[in-house]
UniProtKB/TrEMBL annotation:
GO molecular function: metal ion binding; oxidoreductase activity, acting on single donors with incorporation of molecular oxygen, incorporation of two atoms of oxygen
SUPFAM superfamilies: RmlC-like cupins
Lineage: Eukaryota, Metazoa, Chordata, Craniata, Vertebrata
InterPro entries in the record: PCO/ADO, RmlC-like_jellyroll, RmlC_Cupin_sf
Keywords: Dioxygenase, Iron, Metal-binding, Oxidoreductase
Domain of life: Eukaryota
Protein name per the record: AEDO dioxygenase
Stretches that traverse the bilayer: none
One GO term describing the cellular component: mitochondrion
Annotated signal peptide: none
CDD domains in the cross-refs: cupin_ADO
Length: 242
């Protein structure tokens, strides 16, 4: 059964996000961000009326957008303001949200169920060095591959800032997974906050553990992968009023 305070908890998370991201350059930002991180760390799947799904479970509601093909990832919208957006991403077993960026944005990710493997990178300033020969398909960028870790519901939130861990790839490991996501401010192409996708040009084979992190790498900007798209589902949890 869900806890008695679940509605007030997700409401408090949203209100604290409003306070935190209203003035991200203000003197109290660090303290407010820490308070938001503490609240987010308390959230569990049952607080949002979510239950882990079986490995082959199809998305519900609006999660089947094209020809009966189930999307690898679905999104449940909770709320959005000019300062931040909040929602839940649900990944089917084996699904991957490809490497992408969050231009000028802060973010927090809290796993609700399942296990995620998250690779985090920073962009680096351009340099005189040339990209590897494989970089003929699109613009290339230097980056710092900082970490690749597993996150579960017992883990603290994964954080990103405009300059640190701003690029990440998210993989569902050993079954489906879901996470609560806060981005501040929201994506907005008209204000220079469009999502860009990348491919790692050098590094270990897919699924292998990288060595020697952190280390510099080259990334090539790519179109959104044909096998990745995000469907929509209704949010079943407590209503958030802002």
């Amino acid at each position: 059964m869900p806890r008695d305070n679940m509605a007030s908890l997700i409401q408090r998370v949203a209100r604290q996000a409003c306070v935190t991201f209203h003035s991200p350059a203000g003197p109290a930002f660090g303290e407010n961000l820490h308070r938001l991180q503490q609240l987010l760390n308390e959230v569990r799947a049952e607080d949002l009326h979510l239950a882990p799904r079986g490995p082959s479970a199809a998305a519900a509601g609006g999660g089947i957008p094209w020809g009966g093909v189930v999307p690898p990832v679905s999104y449940m919208h909770i709320c959005e303001t000019e300062s931040f957006s909040m929602g839940v991403f649900l990944l089917r077993s084996g699904a991957c949200i490809p490497l992408h960026d969050h231009p000028g944005m802060n973010g927090m990710l809290k796993v609700l169920y399942g296990t995620l493997r998250i690779a985090c990178m920073d962009t680096l300033p351009p340099a005189a060095a040339s990209p590897p020969p494989a970089a003929a398909g699109g613009p290339c960028h230097r980056a710092l591959y900082r970490s690749r870790q597993h996150y579960t519901p017992a883990s603290p939130p994964c954080l990103l800032s405009p300059h640190t861990d701003n690029l990440h790839q998210i993989d569902a490991v050993d079954g489906p997974a879901a996470f609560l996501d806060i981005l501040a401010p929201p994506y907005d192409p008209q204000h220079g906050r469009d999502c860009h996708y990348y491919r790692l040009l050098e590094g270990p084979p897919a699924g292998a553990e990288p060595s020697g992190l952190p280390r510099e790498v080259w990334l090539m900007e790519t179109p959104q992968a044909a096998d990745f798209w995000c469907g929509g589902e209704p949010y079943p949890g407590p209503r958030v009023c802002l």
